[in-house]
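Hey,
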Amino acid sequence: MVTEDKTYTCTVTDSGADEQQEFVHLDVYEVKAVNAVVKPGTDATISCVIEGITSQVKVEWLESSEEIIVADSNYTPNPGTIENNSQTATLEVTGAAEETTFTCRVTSGQFPSSPSSDTEVQLNVYVVTAHSAEVKSGTDATISCVIEGITSQIEVEWVGAHVEDDNYTQKSGTLDGDSQTATLEVTGAAVTEDKTFACRVTSEQFPDSSVSVTSVQLNVYEVHAVNAEVKSGTYATISCVIVGITSLATVEWVGPSGTDISGDSNYTPKSGTLDGDSQTATLEVTGAAVTEDRTFTCRVTSGQFHSSPFSDTEVQLNVYGCSKDPKFTFTIAGNTEDTVKVGETVTVSCAPGSTPSGSDK
């Protein structure tokens, strides 16, 4: 096994002649691969470091196809120079697209007849997927970036305005198979306007690899409840207006105490259409269902980022007065007659359980 420099003696003895000796050197060098892992489409540099040499060596780079790489628009090989018995050769790759195994082929410059050595150098590619969010103003939010195609833990840093404040919690996540999910949690106090954050990824396995930056959005919308107050037994429409969106939101109406009203013929929900950066969703209620005060919920889910959490906004339907309807019993002046004398003071109320609406002549 060749492990270190050695000097051998070659002794030649010829009959009748003096013995002759020649010293033969076996010089040993090491080649260390400096791999890289980068985001697709970014420029990358891989290298091999040749140590233990006393003169410049010849370095050639080969692709997996065994073709020698020459300088072109995709590759820039640089053999480097010798310094302190070491030489670093690099290969710059423009817009890395996929994982590739390169070969660093080294040939001695001091002894050109020496055999070449081949060392594999890896260019690994990972994918970063941004998971943006669109949430209601004042609610807690979480955005994330998922790194896939890695074999070791990735260092993730979130960059953006005030991310060091108490309103933000950064979590790098842990390696799960070949992926890692990093999150940024934002409290409702900081969810006031649209913001753009950067997910900065650095390989811990190959720290010399370039840093990748992926933008992640936190979009904020507001929901304004448009309540209604109508007379009992009349048709009513309540609505919620979503402001600050760029795509049509999904709106679901929920009845009092969370009841499902989707199949009830007394209710007609309409999601509305996008008008600029706003959308008005309505709920039409037939007179048969307008009998008492009720609280409905306007549930909004982002149409741009579907994995965002939904938001709930309460919308009030307040009911006043009585209507002459068979479902109600009218009490006038203590009896069930519906006629009174002119000028007589009467009290009118509708049952069950309601309070008198007032007195009049």
